[in-house]
Amino acid sequence: MDRIEVPGGTVWFKRVGGGPGLPLVVVHGGPGLPHYYLSSLQRLADEREVIFWDQLGCGNSDRPSDTNLWTMERSVAEMAAVIQALGLNAFHLFGNSWGAMLAQQFVLDVPSGAVTFTISNSAASIPLFAQNVIRLKAELDPATQDAIDRHEAAGTTNSPEYQAAITTWNETYLCRSLPWPRDLYEAFQNMGTEIFETMFGPSDFHIVGTIRDWDVVDRLDEITLPTLLLAGRFDECSPEHMRDMHERIAGSRFEFFENSAHLPFIEEPDRFDAVMRDFLRQHDL
């Protein structure tokens, strides 16, 4: 049975590979962007089991219509239920983007068997993330900026002009490897847009949802797990902010990807794999 009961419904999971190393639990971003875009982490499954799950409301999991479910608190409870149901006593934890925000809250609030924590291309504060997105938008060409602002103000975000502007944004600050791999397209096709709109808002440029005030910067010093932070030069999640996170997490390791935006496992796969394998092997019990 590849389903787990969580608050609000059931979620789908997949266990891949195996080996002598401790399992790696992978937490996807979005909110609502299912696990497909992280499929390249299966490359690590020759040394250890790699475990994926689609968070409630997206991908292969249940898609309940109750928007009251889309909060950080319920997401943490979901993650706790998944870890418990998988029977994991000792495991490595990897989160990308929103997934690493959720995983930060989980590590801070829920005792578990996590042995290490990898924060990939993320933030510890939605207000700081929002400021950075506005700064990056101002660096786009004026026509692209204008198309984003005009169509978001008018509510015409389905227009080809707006979609073209968002494609420019995504190919600049999300994934610079072109053409995008099929896994990344599939994730967007199976996205839980209702979750994103409820938790974040209509777009990254208007974060007005349930997690708009989320901020754990002042709690980062409570993270005592061996922690690896991955940052990309062109990332919509500010590498400067990630360096500050690194400085607040005692003993953490910081790896900077010169040619990546938000997805170094796709954009710089060889270096990503080498860094991950080295870090995980160091901490296998």
Task: Give structural notes.
It is a single chain. Helices cover 38% and strands 16% of the residues. The protein has a single domain, classed as Alpha/Beta hydrolase fold, catalytic domain (Rossmann fold, 3-Layer(aba) Sandwich). The protein is an alpha/beta fold and 285 residues long. It has ten helices and eight strands. Strand 5, helix 2 and strand 6 form a beta-alpha-beta unit.
Index terms:
285 residues; alpha/beta; Rossmann fold; 10 helices; 16% strand; AB_hydrolase_fold; Proline iminopeptidase; hydrolase
Secondary-structure blueprint:
Layout: E1 3-6, E2 9-17, E3 24-27, E4 49-53, H1 72-85, E5 91-96, H2 98-109, E6 114-120, H3 126-137, H4 142-154, H5 160-173, H6 182-189, H7 193-199, E7 227-232, H8 239-248, E8 253-257, H9 264-267, H10 269-282
- Shape descriptor reads globular
- Give me the count of strands: 8
- In N-to-C order, the SSE pattern is EEEEHEHEHHHHHEHEHH
Proportion of beta-strand residues:
15-25%
Using only CA atoms, what is the Rg?
18 Å
N- to C-terminal separation?
29 Å
Q: Major sheet, described briefly?
A: 8 strands, mixed
**CATH homologous superfamily descriptor:** Alpha/Beta hydrolase fold, catalytic domain
Total domain count: 1
The CATH top-level class label? Alpha Beta
Secondary structure class reads alpha/beta
Helix content: 25-40%
Total DSSP helices = 10
Contiguous low-pLDDT stretches (5 residues minimum) are none
Give average pLDDT, whole number. 96
Assign the CATH architecture. Answer: 3-Layer(aba) Sandwich
List the strand order in the largest sheet: 1-2-4-3-5-6-7-8
CATH topology: Rossmann fold
GO molecular function: aminopeptidase activity
Protein name: Proline iminopeptidase
Organism: Mycobacterium asiaticum
InterPro entries: AB_hydrolase_1, AB_hydrolase_fold, AB_hydrolase_sf, Peptidase_S33, Pro_imino_pep
